[in-house]
Amino acid sequence: MDIRKSLLASVLALGTLPLFAQEPEHSKEVFVPHWYMQIQGGAAHTIGETGFSKLISPAAALHFGYRFTPVFGLRFGGSGWQAKGAWVNPKQEYKFKYLQGDVDAVFDLSALFCRFNPRRVFNLYAFVGGAFNHAYDNGAENVAAAGSGELGYLWRGSKNSFAGRGGVGADIRLSDRLALNIEGNTNLLTDKFNSKKAGNADWQFNALVGLTIRLGKGSRIVEPVYVAPDPEPEETPRPVVIPERKEPQPRQEVAEKKRETYRCDVFFHINSAVIRPQEQAKIDSLVIYMQKYPESKVALTGYADAGTGNKRINLRLSKERAQSVKDALLKAGIEASRVLSDYKGDSVQPFTENDLNRVTICVAE
User: Fold this and answer.
1) Which of 358, 279, 263, 264 is nearest to 320 (CA)?
2) Does domain 7-220 have CATH number 2.40.160.20?
3) What b/e string do you get for 182-211 counting C-beta neighbours within 10 Å, with b at 16 or more?
4) Residue 301 and residue 345: Cα distance in Å, rounded?
5) What is the C-alpha end-to-end distance of the chain, expressed in Å?
6) How far is CA 25 from CA 29, 231, 308, in A?
7) What top-level class would CATH report for the domain 226-237+258-364?
8) Radius of gyration of the CA atoms of the chain, in A
9) Closest by alpha carbon to 40, among 11, 74, 80, 72?
């Protein structure tokens, strides 16, 4: 038992190895529910009274699945092809065909024990389910016709029955959409499946190799939401009390207290100049500041991150980001003469973290 636990731990640990470098610490890749398809082919073995190799036959499967969570999903489809049986005395082998519809509950063991990782090379899964089996073209009829023996559960034409299923498999990542699939499973069938009366269920084992094709986007990157600190409230100026003087004094002008500069940073999604709802509050605060100080002006500077795109695209993006903020201010009633707009592309990176440079910096004074 200890050896099995160690082997399972080793396999799951292998699954944690990434194919490419991990995302930077400031970004997070989260799971997205999606459809996938599996195409498999291989060999089947039905337990019988002869040598192992004599009862090996071809097998194939086609399934469609849906991943609801990083750990749990459902798949459905069809499997089957051919099965074999044998009569002992006199020795005679026979074949019959079958098709079955499968419904399986699938559990991603790598995600369960080693957390979700869309870049994982080796993903181990297990499943349990049921099937409706339709067997036909029974070669056991020839055995009975030859008088080889009494087949207690001989069926002719076709035979329908229900089956239980279970197994394990692995997806070896080839790309974002494609994985090499290896699976071993077993079908627990009625004793009448192979026409011989044995007093117990018939077992069939399958070893399959194929491809797993992801039909939807399985993950997305969530960018950090940077919230600029609110400006400190200005102190209410205390009234100046001028003491009464007997002699007239020269008039002294009291210098007006200089107002504080207001800054806010409006962040954007990658390759976007659309103002997100969570950033609109910053623009609303900027509008309030400019309404409070009618003589103030604001300088807008758009930027793009150097980690994506190219110089031409990033220059355009930074210009559009600055223009988006300007349009929002004008829509709120701020005069165009009070809004100065500029853009830098990716030639200047105001933040050390790459993703935070998808920004328009607003400075009002």
Assistant:
1) 358
2) yes
3) bbebebbbbbbbbbbeeeeebebbbbbebe
4) 10
5) 72
6) 10, 28, 17
7) alpha beta
8) 36
9) 80
The domain ranges of the chain are: 7-220, 226-237+258-364
**Calpha distance 325→334 (Å, rounded):** 12
Beta-carbon contacts of residue 283 (< 8 Å; ≥ 6 apart): 264, 266, 275, 325, 328, 329, 332
- C-alpha span between 361 and 300 (Å, rounded): 6
pLDDT in tens, 310-331: 999 999 999 999 999 999 999 9
Contact criterion met (CB below 8 Å) for 347 and 317: no
- Among 178, 238, 246, which residue's Cα sits nearest to residue 211? 178
- Which amino acid appears at position 232 of this protein? E
Compute the Cα dihedral for 24, 25, 26, 27 and give only its sign. positive
Q: Which residues of 214-228 are buried (b: 16+ CB within 10 A; e: fewer)?
A: beeebbeeebeeeeb
Distance CA 144, CA 39 (A): 37
Q: Which two tokens stand for residue 212?
A: 């797993």
Helix (H) or strand (E) holding 317: helix 311-331
Is a pLDDT exceeding 60 seen at residue 305?
Answer: yes
Beta strand 339-343 pairing with 298-302: parallel
**Model confidence, pTM:** 0.56
Q: What CA–CA distance (Å, rounded) separates 122 from 325?
A: 45
Residue pLDDT, tens place only, 333-345: 999 999 999 999 9
Token pair recorded at residue 267: 């962040």
